[in-house]
Design brief:
about 0% strand, homodimer, 2 domains, DNA-binding, Tetracycline Repressor, domain 2, about 65% helix
DNA sequence: CACGCAATGAACGAACTAGTACATGCTAGG
DNA sequence: CCTAGCATGTACTAGTTCGTTCATTGCGTG
C-alpha cells in the first residue's frame, strides 16, 4: 500500500516542499498537508467506489486504506455522497486531460479515425476504474453527473477532434456527407466501453478470454474497422 | 436448499398447473402457493436489484413490496445473495425464451441481419431492468454468472441465429468470408447495450435526449447500418 | 381424521455503518 | 513568541440491515 507519490491527483496544488517542519523532521511529528490528504483520499475512494459501487463501498474501509482517518473524509468531503461526487468529477477530469494528446491532423482522415478509435480503445482498456465508475453512475441514473456545472459538462462532451476528422474526411471525399458526429462518437464509445465493462459476463458466457493480448489486438482492429466502414461512402 | 419448485418463476405467471391448492380457495384464508410466492418475490427483487444494485437493495424493502414477508425470502432463497442469484438466472432465462421468435430464414441475409439487429435493439430498450442487472453483475466481476451450470451458460451463449445468417450471407456472396460470429455478436451487443446502459450520462454530457422516439429510431437505423456495413465485402 | 411437513407471520437481535463530539497538534500572522 | 484558526486523531452514537427465533396455520396422506 505504499503510495508515496500521489501528489497532483486532486489538483495542481503546489505543495512543493515543507521546510517548516524542521527540515530534518523525522516521521515522528505530524505534518499537515491538506492537498496531499485530499488527493490520497480521492485516490483510495476511486478504487473503492469503482469496485463496489456507491452503496457497496464502506467509508471505514476507505479510511483504513488511507494515510489518514475517517474524520478527514468528513472534514473534506462532508458525506459519503460528497466524496463520491469528488471521485467522479476527478475521474472525468483526468480522462479529459490525457485525451487528445494525439497528433492526427496530418494523417489521412480514415487513418486518423482508425487511430482515434484505437487510442480510445486502449485508453478505456487501461482505465477500468473509470469505466466501472461510469457504470455505477448510470445505475444511479446519472444523478451525480447531472449536478456538474455547465462548463464541466461542456468540456466533458468535447469531441472536436472527431469533428475535425469528419470535416476533413468529407472535404477529401472519403466519408459520407451525412455523418452525425455525436452518433459516431456514441458508436465508438459503445464498442470500446463494452469491451471493458461487460468483459466478465461476456467471457463467461461465450467461453472466450477477452483479456489475452491476441484477443485484445483482434478486437481492437475489429472495432476500428467497423467504425471506419461505417463512415465510408 | 428449499429448491423445491423451479418451474414458473416470475412473469405473467398465470398460475398454471395448480390443482392442489383448492381451485376454489377464497381470499379469506391463507392459501399456500409457493410458486406464486416465489415468482412474486423474484419479480419485486428484480426491479430492486436492477435499480439499486446488490448492496444498495434492501431486503426489508423488497419484502414490503411483496405480497408476503421477509421470512419467505429467507425461506426460499436463504440469503440476499441467493435471491440475487435467482434474479439473475431468471432474467437470463426470460431473455432467452423470447429471443429468436423472429422469422429470418427466408429473407436476404443482409436484410435478415439488419432485422436481427433492430430486434435486439428494441428488445434491450424494452428491458432496461435486464440491462441494468447485467451492469450490476459486471461490477461484481460476473462472479454470480460464473456459478451457473454449463448447460445454462450454453443456452445463454446460443447465437445460432446469427451463425446461420452469416452462413447464408457468405454462401450467397454478400458477406465477407472471415466474419467471426462471436465478434460480430459482441459488436451488436455493444451498440445496443450502450444505448440503454449509458443513456443517462451520455444524454447529460452531450445534451441530447436519447429517449425521444425520433432519436431512438435514428439510432436504431444507425446501429443496424453500422453492423451491416461491417460484414459486407 | 389426525399427523407430519410445508408455508407463513411477527418480533427480535447482533453486527455494521454513516456521521459526530471532543480533544489536540500544527502553522502562520502579528 | 503567542494566539487564532486550520488540520487531525480518538472514541462514540444513533439508526440501519441482514438474518433468525419462536410460534401458527394450511395441506396432503396414510
Amino acid at each position: 500500500m505504499a503510495k508515496a507519490s500521489t501528489k497532483a491527483t486532486a489538483q495542481p496544488a503546489p505543495k512543493v516542499d515543507k521546510p517548516k517542519t524542521s527540515a530534518t523532521a523525522k516521521p515522528k511529528t505530524r505534518t499537515n498537508d491538506p492537498d496531499r490528504t485530499r488527493a490520497n483520499i480521492i485516490e483510495v475512494a476511486t478504487h473503492e467506489f469503482s469496485e463496489k459501487g456507491l452503496s457497496g463501498a464502506r467509508i471505514d474501509e476507505i479510511a483504513e486504506r488511507t494515510q489518514t482517518s475517517k474524520r478527514m473524509i468528513y472534514y473534506y468531503f462532508e458525506s459519503k455522497e460528497g466524496l463520491y461526487r469528488a471521485v467522479i468529477e476527478n475521474s472525468y477530469r483526468r480522462i479529459r486531460s490525457i485525451e487528445a494528446t494525439l497528433d492526427l491532423e496530418h494523417k489521412p482522415p480514415l487513418e486518423a479515425l482508425a487511430q482515434h478509435v484505437r487510442f480510445t480503445f486502449d485508453y478505456q482498456l487501461a482505465n477500468p476504474d473509470f469505466i466501472r465508475l461510469v457504470m455505477v453512475e448510470n445505475i444511479h441514473h446519472g444523478a451525480h453527473v447531472a449536478q456538474f456545472s455547465p462548463e464541466q459538462l461542456d468540456s466533458m462532451g468535447d469531441i472536436s477532434t472527431l469533428h475535425s476528422i469528419i470535416k476533413r474526411g468529407i472535404a477529401e471525399g472519403v466519408m459520407r456527407k451525412d455523418i452525425d458526429p455525436v452518433d459516431l462518437h456514441m458508436s465508438i464509445s459503445a464498442l470500446c466501453f463494452f469491451n471493458v465493462a461487460n468483459r466478465h459476463t461476456f467471457s463467461t458466457i461465450f467461453k472466450v478470454d477477452m483479456a489475452t493480448p491476441a484477443a485484445t489486438a483482434a478486437r481492437r482492429e475489429s472495432v476500428a474497422d467497423t467504425i471506419v466502414r461505417s463512415v465510408t461512402l
